[in-house]
Amino acid sequence: MDNYSANTTTLAPRPGSLKATGLPENFLPDLVCKHLAEAGVLDLAVLAQRLALLGSLVEEILGFLRADGRVEVLGAQGGSPFVRFGLTDRGRIAAASASARDGYVGPAPVTLPEYRRVVNAQSVRLYPLTRAQVHSAFADTVIRPEVLDRLGPAVNSGRPVFIHGEPGTGKSYIARRLSRLLGPPVLVPYAILFGDSVVRCYDPGVHRPVDEGVVAQSLMLSEGFDPRYVLCERPVIVAGGELTLDRLDLAFDPATRLYQAPLQLRANNGLLLIDDLGRQRLPAVSLFNRWIIPLEENQDHLSVKTGQHFTVPFDLVLIFATNFNPLELADQAFLRRIGYKVHFTPSSPEDYAAIFEQECEKRGIIYNPGLVSYLVEGLHGPRGVPLLACHPRDLLGLAMDYVTYTGEPMGETALLWAWDSYFVSDVDQTRAQ
Start and end of every AAA+ ATPase domain (predicted)? Predict the structure, then answer.
């Protein structure tokens, strides 16, 4: 944390006044009322924690709400030094009205201009990759140097990267690993205010906090960065065959009256991998078209249900990965607009052996070069099956299941059993299933 604390505090200092939050005058009082309506009676410390605001600011809001007759003081309880607060009848009506307009109850959001500023200050383009960095990061990975030397410039370019090749050649694995080269951790807001609507941005399923303690900083102090943000590793989002165009727009739940940020917004300052391109329920060209303007302008256009339109940063590494021939998905003229194409091919016998050795080490198996020769020369070659990077891992996994079950040592018998279990048939083995 010490390496980042000074920069993050400068980038997003804690607001020392209600005005410094940038939020509309009535927004925070309404949000406090919604918190009290949801949780019941709360003391100042808990409210400050829930709102991710300094205690002094929450105290000021409560003073306004008391004067307005929406909140009453109920006294301290259980040895707590803080008095408790609850809603009056007027406050409950106000909370219901606020919830009807917007269902968000959580940490105070940041404004859209503030979000743009922070994202731009953390841009992936501020950390261009060098050849030495890329090769160092993949030193423990079996991958051809010429492939790395295509990926590095592609990531630096800011243009989308189109990775294609047979299934099992390591496309998705390598693409995800690129995220480690995108720069230091970034601040991700819990939520963003779009006009009169709040959009959830921080997603625990996607964003990984660098230090859980950062989220729980003391909110009664003025030290550290704005706790309306979470310091996270650069996000990596993977969307596969389930991807539809509506997931690339703001999602509104009419039951809860909540907005969820689209994939690309949650992936800002990180990496978005569209995997298994061509297997979605919509044409690949429709996905390509969705990114043309954002990629050219480095910004995206979103709208809420009222019709209000907003511009947000589009700052990420966008990677398409597919098992199809690119020309099956789009014509040459369109593919020229996509940017870089990187072809992943089957492994060489030497690379296959190196991957096999790595997998043996991971599983605690004594490496036996003879078993690799058996696979390559005795099974792959005669049966016409290409050497794919996934095969050593998958076949060893199945062989270990056999060894555990039978008590026999790892050997050719176990690998042959794994082979027969892994492939669908011997009739068409030109491609692993």
Answer: 157-344
